[in-house]
Amino acid sequence: MFETYASKTKEIRPFEPESAAVARTIAGESIVLLKNDDVLPLAEGAAIALYGEGAACTVKGGVGSGEVNARETVSIREGLENAGFSVLTASWLDDYKSLLEREHTAYLARMRDKAGFLNFKIIHELLSEPFKNPEGMKITEQYLTRDTDTCMYVLTRQAGEEMDRKPEAGDFLLTATEIENIRTCVEQYQNVILVINVGGYLDLTPVEDLPIDAILFFCQQGSEGGNALADVVRGAVTPSGHLSSTWPKCYEDVPFGGTFSTLNGNVDSDEYKEGIYVGYRYYDSFDVEPRWPFGFGLSYTTFEQDAAVRVEGTDIALDVTVTNVGTVSGKEVVQVYVSCPAGKLDKEYQKLAGFAKTGKLRPGASETLSVRFPLKEMASFDESRSVFLLEAGDYAVFTGNSSRNTKAAAVLTLAEDVTVSEHAAICPKQTPFEELKAPAQTLVLDASVPRLPVDPGAFETVRYTYEKNDPAESAAIEQELGKLKDTELHSLCVGSGVDIALPKHHDFIVPGACGYSTGDLEKKGIPSISFCDGPAGLRLFDESVITGNTVRMTKPVMESFAILPTFMRSVIVKKPKEGKMLYQYATAFPVGMALAQTWSLDLAERFGKAVQTEMEAFGAEFWLAPGMNIHRNPLCGRNYEYYSEDPLLSGSMAAAVAGGVQSRPGFGVTMKHFCCNNQEINRMHVSENLSPRALREIYLKNFYYGVTRGNPKAIMTSYNKINGVYAAENHDTVTKVLRNEWGFTGLVMTDWTTDAYLLDSAKAMKAGVDLMMPGIGSDHKQIKKALASGELSAAELRRNASHVLRAITETRLYQRNYGGNNNG
Ligand code: BGC
């Protein structure tokens, strides 16, 4: 029989209120105030006419692996009522709930019919069509109230794994009913607040000229979202969230958006013709006005920023004094951008170089924030020599509170070109295509802006070597490895399946973990450790039942499971009466995009610590998060899980979250999906075709920051190909860049079922991927065959196995049971 930390009762566990408080604080700081014509905050206890798909049926997060089975979720309606507002439109909201229930039943029936024709790939297939909130009824006379002049309308969308959003009504575009309803609201009510409950953006063109008084980008905020919104609406929290990506006016403005995902009918490959011009790097360089720029967010108060810049060797140090010159307390974000000189290489108008957030400042109060960045991080990649290069010229440093609201703080002058680092050429393009190039811009800056020379001689060129540079394993690991036969070594490199078909021999389980390392070696003192999904918290079974020697879910943990054919359901879903019940209520935290909108590394770390506490309570060892792919296109189905279009913001957030989770020994994060996982439809086969420059400056750079600053214990490869080579078989990215250049020594695993659909496991292992997840029989066969033919060497096998073994021995489970050191 196995051991588990799941509870036998539904009693609230001590971490739950603490996690809820963290989730509420993050949510409050991440909501972005996009417009406010003096309507917010509302008076305490005000009466509100509340409408819209997300009002009573608020979407807390996306679907798929990012979903968290929380004890409860506070909707916007409940949050407002908890805070003492009176919601006067119960009739519309109740009718909407009934409509949603009817539509949900019809959806399940539709999907069940479809499921009849599908085979075992069903889970992947069905993930792609999640249930979406219906648009709702028109706001007709019967739903209006004369007892308030304040109205709130909540727009909602849903997205997730295996699907991309579409530039269609009901998705990126508003529906006719939504437009009409918003128009009715502005006609009937004096004050109208639009709330956007979407883990991404929408085209708001049809309502842009309507007199909407306030717009809040609520995003998707987990269990405490409704309470957090109420905190902002009543002014208990002054908004301090800022957008983590650019909000375009319309989809047509997105560079090369027309070839994304299904839009040009080719889901097999995408050419990144925009090159490095992703997000604000494009909008700012090509003078395309966004609806709201990168980094934008309003407050109930106003701040002034005053920056002083120093050059310290090759680092740039700023002291930015922020003063609250308004009338209420609040927090401000300082963003530092650098415009690099165009030379041989074309350059983006500016890029984010650093950021920081103040504490809560009273009116009149000031705080001086330090922001520091190495100038070499601003270098551009010169493909002709495969080097990162700082070209001679003027580097203008700007500070402000959005990419389009900045002031020049200094001009750094570099008299000569500096080669920052020399690299192996990686991931060559398979077929040539033209990339966008920005015209050189001439910056005209005030003569009063200080000019500060940077000494080119102060830089040292880093020359990478691509030799085997794995550090020697500890004597203890070497000794353990020495005890294992070859077949046992490759067992270490193959996971032991998903939880829905849990193998017998696991001593310790976390119901709902989505995989374990091998259980074959438990008798030898090597435990099978759990990998639990994220990133918005831990995705576990909230309620499960012990039947015999197994644990089964009592209700479908993902909607897609609800529609599995009956024979499959009966294996994986059991009724409570069939055994003893177990409970695990994890907290649904705000999604990754929301977290990034706080621009607070402190909060990201607190979030990580809260997740670690829950991991400890449930006995989880590795968390399959944070997700940190770049928001390349606003339609990517998983953008909500990820942080930003900017590599620095994205990587810094991931590093801070990792710092929190790994602040206690025994727990690990898994940064994912490495890399270029930017399209969900056909994510298993699409080739993301891009220049080595775009790869290095954007899609690897986020992981560079995450890995080098956050020191994650694990990395998960993505499904897609990078210039024709699967990410999980990609020696260039996994070994040359991740291990050789960045010095990563942890565990690299595949994304789930990569082994079933794509991969030759031996090829992956040769490329440097250590662990095939969730692990299937053919992995063993492929490894055995490759060893026999010499395609995979014994040394390579031993290297990969040692990474897995080290990861296992560092877990709390191992330490507690076998290592003689109880960290719990
Ligand atoms: C997702 C991963 C996730 C894994 C395990 C995959 O489909 O892409 O993000 O961690 O499943 O659930």
Describe the protein:
It is a single chain. The chain is α/β, with parallel strands linked by helices and 824 residues long. It is built from 22 helices and 33 strands. A six-stranded mixed β-sheet has the order 2-7-6-5-3-4, with helices on both faces. A six-stranded mixed β-sheet has the order 22-23-27-28-30-33. Strand 5, helix 5 and strand 6 form a beta-alpha-beta unit. Helix 1 packs across helix 6. It is globular and about 75 Å long. The protein starts with a strand and ends in a 7-residue tail after the last helix. It binds beta-D-glucopyranose.
Taking all Cα atoms into account, the compactness measure Rg is 26 Å
Average pLDDT? 93
Number of strands: 33
Q: What is the overall number of helices?
A: 22
What can be said about the biggest beta sheet?
A: 6 strands, mixed
What's the arrangement of strands in the largest beta sheet? 2-7-6-5-3-4
Q: What is the helix fraction of residues, given as a range? A: 25-40%
* SSE class: alpha/beta
Q: What keyword list fits this structure?
A:
alpha/beta, 20% strand, binds beta-D-glucopyranose, six-stranded mixed β-sheet, 824 residues, globular, 27% helix
Question: Layout of SSEs?
Answer:
Elements: E1 3-4, H1 15-30, E2 32-36, E3 47-51, H2 76-82, E4 86-87, H3 90-115, H4 122-127, E5 150-156, H5 176-188, E6 191-197, E7 214-217, H6 225-233, E8 269-271, H7 280-285, E9 303-312, E10 315-324, E11 333-339, E12 351-357, E13 366-374, E14 380-382, E15 387-390, E16 393-402, E17 405-414, E18 418-422, E19 451-454, E20 462-463, H8 475-482, H9 486-492, E21 508-509, E22 515-516, E23 530-533, E24 543-547, E25 550-553, H10 559-562, H11 566-572, E26 580-583, H12 592-597, H13 601-618, E27 622-624, H14 647-661, E28 668-674, E29 687-689, H15 692-699, H16 701-710, E30 714-717, E31 721-722, E32 725-726, H17 731-741, E33 747-749, H18 754-757, H19 761-767, H20 777-789, H21 794-809, H22 812-817
Parallel strand pairs: 1-21, 3-4, 3-5, 5-6, 6-7, 8-29, 17-19, 18-20, 23-27, 27-28, 28-30, 29-31, 30-33
Antiparallel strand pairs: 2-7, 9-10, 10-13, 11-12, 11-16, 14-15, 15-18, 16-17, 22-23, 24-25, 24-26, 31-32
The chain binds beta-D-glucopyranose.
Residues 65, 161, 514, 533, 624, 672, 751-752 line the site of beta-D-glucopyranose.
